[in-house]
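To assess whether ligand presence alters the predicted conformation, the chain was also submitted together with heme C. Input:
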Amino acid sequence: MTRSTLLLVLVASLAVASCGDDVATAERPADDAEFIAFERDFQGFQGWRKVDLGTRDDASIHTGGTRISFVNAALPPGSTVAPKGGIIVKVTGIDTAERRVFAMAKRGGTYNASGARGWEWFELDDSGDVPRISWRGLGPPNGETYAGGTECNTCHMAGAASDYVLGPELK
Ligand code: HEC
């Protein structure tokens, strides 16, 4: 190998290396990026820390019947404020035809700034092997009526002092 070929090889491999770095940097989310939950983030939620919410005779789909919530590892016991990436899944009306699965994920930033700040709302379908997201956002889609037509934010804003979590999950 001549000196100039060697130099060429060196320059080429350096270029490849720095190119690889660029890709790695581009894929890494910035620290201030919001957490966007994917279906995989809910996978196995049934094995997360379980909080028994008891059984209540209530006409509302959301707060009625036997309810259990599942809290992900980002929210260890004793947490009082959910960090970005915190997820709580709540199963309502267990063992009834009204059974539903709701969730909230801490998206962070200025998301839902006029409601439960930082939280995104979900309904999940866990009838298959992996949970599917039925809807997500600032509230349920038009036409869906939960808890007498009130929005997720309406009730949960009452819990501003406990990071909009109304049950004992963050205690
Ligand atoms: C009628 C008031 C009301 C509405 C509307 C409501 N929630 Fe709740 N939610 C509650 C209460 C009260 C709890 C505490 C647990 C319990 O009592 O069942 C709760 C608990 C939860 C929890 C478990 C974490 C926590 O705060 O304790 C999740 C997740 C949740 N709700 C999601 C939703 C979603 C998603 C919506 C909108 C589709 C919604 N909620 C609408 C009253 C409400």
